[in-house]
UniProtKB/TrEMBL annotation:
InterPro entries: Quino_amine_DH_bsu (IPR011044). This is Uncharacterized protein. It comes from Flintibacter hominis.
Amino acid sequence: MRFYRLMGSDFQILDGEKITHVPLPGPLAPGVYAHLVGGERYAAIGNSRATAEGLRYVPEEAHGLWLYDQQEGQLLTVPIKVTKEDCFTADSIMGPGNTLYFSDGNSFWRWRLGERQGEKLVRFQQAKGAPMGLGISPEGRYLSYYKYRSGNKVLHLYDLDTGEVRDTKCSIFHYHWLDETSVVYTKSSGVKALDIKTGRCTTILRGYRDILRWGSAPDILAPFEREKEVWEEMDLLGISGGRLWFSLRLCCPREAALRSGSEREPFHHGIWSSAVNGSQPRFHFECPQISSSSSGPVWTGDCLTWSDSAGAYLYDGRQLREFFGWKPLVGYPDF
């Protein structure tokens, strides 16, 4: 597990006890975002040109998107014309053939590593909402993203073969590609799958009552089984080891606690997984308390990581580790 921070124009990567220093063009704006693309090899580093309110804009050369090749120890500048309005955050992903797809906040771009210039694929009307949450299908045909509509995240697709932009009209919370034609996502209570060919949505897990029917963790969920009113939230964390990983949060009104003679209402916030068809749900551990202002959490395959203004955190179900002043350097599904 790796972490990053910015000290002036010195971008630093923490891996175990080793710190790698990557000099960036400076001075940089305070808000620098980084994540892994192309497996563990590249760290995508981006920022926006505007600094904190009342300060000047950073120089042009200190604004943009970079790739740090951790294998070769080389910093690559993504070759596109950058405007002062551009914002390079976490929306970049590696596709087949060492092709980087990314957003500047208004447009999608494509850059094949080694080429002299990036290619703009499509520009969006800002008035209709900026694209966010960039993903790519396993075989590399579709870019996926969401746009806000009436406060909801609505999943969209961009066909790289035809240039068609499609509104799936599917309201989501978090999503991941399951295969080339299926997207799995969470929305309020339940995990669902969207067939992008037919537009048909199917339910994988309807909620905690589906888990109970499988006979999973009855001691944990029993306090909720007899309640008529249960507030429930499921959040998709990722796909790892051929299983869906999700968090499950349950609580009951205060009246339920009074009926049971307890001093507090029933509450559960746990990390779970299931087969991709929703079968064999399994409880792993109770989730630690995470502030609503935190970024994440993200499931890394063996632990949970998130960050807040103080630093980054790792939790494996047994030990909570704190990395003050750092942020998690995590990857998103790419190929």
